[in-house]
Amino acid sequence: MALRPFNLSRSVLRFNPARRQFQNDATAKLQKPPLAFVFDIDGVLIRGEDVLPSAKRALAILEGNNPFGKLPYILLTNGGGVSEKARCQKLTEKLGFEIRPTQYIQAHTILKTLSSKYEDTPVLVLGGKLDQVRKVAIDYGFKRAYTSLDFLSWNPSVWPFHQLTPSETLATKQVDFFKTPISAVFVFHDPRNWALDVQVICDVIQSGGFVGGPYVPLDQQKNPVELVFCNPDLIWRSDFSTPRLGQGAFKEAFQAVFKALTGSEYPHVQFGKPTRATYDYATTVLHRRVQEMTGHPPALSSIYMIGDNPESDIAGANAANWNSVLVKTGVFDGGVPTHQPTHVAEDVEEAVTWAIGVELDKLRQK
Ligand code: G3P
Ligand code: MG
Prior knowledge:
One of its GO terms (cellular component) is mitochondrion. This is HAD-like domain-containing protein. This protein is 33% helix and 16% strand. By secondary structure, it is α/β, with parallel strands linked by helices. It folds into two domains: 37-106 and 279-299 and 316-338, Rossmann fold (3-Layer(aba) Sandwich); 111-270, 3-Layer(aba) Sandwich (Rossmann fold). The two termini are 27 Å apart. The protein binds SN-glycerol-3-phosphate and magnesium ion.
């Protein structure tokens, strides 16, 4: 549904912070879709399984309860572990507003752009519950995706300190890894068994892909194994009282072990917020969404990123020349942020109404 055009004779509402509501302002002239939003999820819309009350109010404003009518927005999270479709269904139920896969990006969504390169090549995919990320990888086009549980099923001696549970056994594929060289490792989501996954990554890299095979010094490997991480968050905010370790902490643990073994860290590719690749990807998704809704590409000055983590949400948005709003409902809970946002707000509702107020003022000044 296109944005409701404003005719100039119609007055435009102006946000009154004291009353936390909009009032008439007859001076506004509307040219293009005024603004678009990019929402982080954990610590902004939800905490663990709980929806933050301000989240539903914020989305209600964007879904039409403001002077501009329905406003475009996408969700950009460093979370993941399931398909975009499954996560959108769950978010739609929780938030009470339809969240479509065309307006949703998770940490590993960008791997869709890489899958053709690895279509028929065996790769190791890590993170998430059981073999869920394998299913996501196959959906993306990685036809030969294996998990660390597959290695344990193939040879329990790969990691003697964990015996497969019945549900893990059911989630494994029977493979002869002596004949299945792994050419790349993709850490899709937060690993559930750090020790097993660190062991298997070290094995894959040091043996040039043949786990259980002889170690080959890295400088003698013709095609070293590629290593890709999708989420650099050292910490993130769930429903626990203090932040939890994220995939970035797993990467630190792996690199520390690898360096202890080989003397140096292993080169890798990093995706996820705040990386440029992820924000460029998000920009194309947002443009497509705004185009879909309005028939116009957004005027760039009007993109607002709402996030709780200065290191990922704010740093990335600032580097992308977006407006960045830091909320206090997640990782950041006051003090001086490590990356300076355009604005600090108590919660996502205040963030959204502040941004709309800014764009109304811009119109009024025209
Ligand atoms: O595992 C997810 C976490 O690192 C952060 O998610 O939604 O705050 O980007 P989000
Ligand atoms: Mg967050």
